[in-house]
Amino acid sequence: MAGTALTAYGIYLALAFGLRTAVQLRRTGASGFKGVSGRPGSAEWFAGALFVVALLVGVAAPVLALTDVVEPIEGLDTTEVHVVGIVLFIVGLAATLAAQVAMGESWRIGVDESERTELVTDGPFAVARNPIFSAMLPTSLGLVLMVPSWVALVGLAALVVALELQVRVVEEPYLQRTHGHAYLAYARDVGRFVPGVGRLPGAPSARDGGSSVAQGGDTAEATGSRER
Q: d(Cα 133, Cα 175) in Å, to the nearest integer?
C-alpha cells in the first residue's frame, strides 16, 4: 500500500500542479506560481513554508513506510481503512481538478499585490469560497489513510495550518482590498471551506440587494481571485 500511496501522490502532483501549471503557461504566458512571500517569521511566510513542508512530507511518508523506517499506526493499517483512503483520494483529486478548471486563468499559487484577477463566484465557488483548498484536504487525508503513520499525520497537520493561515491572513485581506464590497457581499453568503461555515459579516448580502458580485472567487487557492 505504501507503493500505491507513493504512486497516487505522484499522480496528484503531476495533475494538480504540473498539468495545471502547463495549462496556465499556455493560456497566460505565466506559471501562476508566486512562491513563499512575506517577511521570514511572519504568518504569511509560515503559511507558504508549512505548505512546502506538507508537500515534502507527502513524499517522505510513503517512502519511509516502504523502507520500513517508520511503522504504520496500529489499528489504522487495515484493508478497510486503506479502501476509505483510496476513495477519499480519488474524490478529492477529482474535486481539486474541477475547482481548478472553474478558476480558469485566475488560478494562482500565492498572492501578488500588483495583480487583479477576476473574482470567481460561480460553479464550485458558489458552494465554498476556497473549493481547491477544500478538496485538497480529503485528498491528503486519503493519502494518510493509505499509509497511516505519525509522519503522515504531521504532514496533514502542516497542510491544515498552512491553508488556514493562507486563507485568513493572506488571501481574504487581499481579496477585500482588491474587490472591496463585491468580495464582502460574496463572503457573507458563501462559507470559507464548507457551505455556511466561515461566512464574513460586514457587507449587505448579494442576495439582499447589495452590490453585484463580480464573476469569480478563490485565489488560486492561493490567490483568491478567479479561484481563489
A: 16
Which amino acid is located at 158 in the chain? A
Name the residue ranges covered by the structural domains of the chain.
2-115+131-162
- Supply 92's cell numbers: 478529492
Task: Count Cα neighbours of 218 within 13 Å in the Cβ-side half-sphere.
Answer: 34
Of the candidates 184, 90, 96, 86, the residue with the CA atom closest to the CA atom of residue 144: 86
Q: What is the CA radius of gyration of the chain?
A: 18
pTM: 0.81
SS3 107: strand
Inter-residue contact 112 to 208 (CB < 8 Å): no
Backbone phi, then psi, for 119, in 5-degree steps? -80, 115
Closest CA relative to residue 154, chosen from 76, 43, 36, 58: 58
Q: Which residue has the cell 481563489?
A: 228
* Tens digit of pLDDT at every position of the chain (228 positions): 899 999 999 999 999 888 888 877 887 776 656 666 777 888 888 888 899 999 999 999 999 999 999 999 988 999 999 999 999 999 999 999 999 888 877 767 766 666 677 888 889 999 999 999 999 999 999 999 999 999 999 999 999 999 999 999 888 988 888 888 988 999 999 999 999 898 987 655 555 544 433 333 344 443 344 443
User: CA–CA separation, 225 vs 140, rounded Å?
Assistant: 24
